[in-house]
Amino acid sequence: MVSQKTRTTTSTPMPISIGGDGEEDGDTATRAWLTRLVVVAVVLSALNLRPAIISVGALLEEVRDGVGMSGTTAGVLTSVPAVCFALFGALAPRLARRFGVGAVVCGGMAAIAAGLAIRPYTGTTAGFLAASALALMGIAVGNVLMPVVVKRWFPDRVGPMTGLYSMALALGTGTAAAVTVPMTEALGGSWRAGLTVWAVLAAVAVLPWIPLLRDRGAHDARDPERGAPPARGTSAPEPGAGALRVTRSRTAWALAVFFGLQATAAYITMGWMAQIFRDAGVPAGTAGLLLAVTMAMGVPLAFVIPRFATRLPHQGPIVVALGLCGLIGYAGLYLAPAGGAWAWAVLLGIANCAFPLALTMVGMRARTGAGVAQLSAFAQSTGYLISVPGPLLVGVLYQHSGGWGLPLALMAGLMVPQMVAGVLAGRARTVEDEAAATR
Question: The pTM is what?
């Protein structure tokens, strides 16, 4: 006699199946295989979310000469990523609702690969910028939807999975910064080959998403709003399906401001820290190494901080600790930039780990997959818009003041509202509850 068995649990959800033990065991094995595939897909995708940006910075002089790019356009190029992240990231939930999360992320990885493969050979500044925008579009949807993937597939492991994703992202960033120039030299000195090779990594990231394309929610994790996962043959609602007004949530606004100010600090650090050290008399090679140390701090800490954050009812203490590291680092750069260079590089690297903390809070401040999708899109799109003026303003202050006093004062000053916004965003509440309370 055929029996019907269902399992419910408060931790890792299992798909509901109707049939005998053998059939249920098969479903469990399929679920385990798909879960491992999602882990691989997330890691490979995260590795590809920054090399498209970092590799251009490493070869910017060669790119300018190769496509006839003016100095003004090159300056604008440094702000294009944040603008694209804001614009294209806002579209991610709508695309995910229409095509499915896996399909959109897969398409995003394909867009990165295509953009990176095309742009070195366009031959014009306009073509280079257009191909870069294509790659950045793929990065933008990946930025927004990775927290959604984590929330839906690993609801009881948001911290560890966000840490793994953040660590892979930091590893991709550091690797691109460290190997782009040597790899270009090994490929005969062609900057086109040095940039194109990153398209291969993006193409590899497409592969693990392909088996998930037809899996539009049948194996999604439990949605706390909807109970158990759907039975086989049905599909779960995609992100963005709800009527959530995320802009009515104070926590959403706090998280958006926190995300934007930490992104501002990160872009300023990546763009200007090496120059600060060089102006203080540190050799160019050492200044580059100091910047690499700052970026490398994100690899281990990006894995540790999210795990720790999910165990706390309030993430405010972590926000304050990271902010204090940033304030001490900026003070050190002003008082003794060369004498304590290594200490300041480490402290600023710790401060920059506000990024994985922000991603973790995105997953914690929404109760449903749809809520995470909308909160992620809102916080990141708004945040990246906030971050656009920062690096440009630092350059203006540096040029007109002739020193680093005013720029460093600006950096330190921005750290204070970042800490305030982060403390507010770290409170144990959800955007769904806040939005409902304002109706």
Answer: 0.74
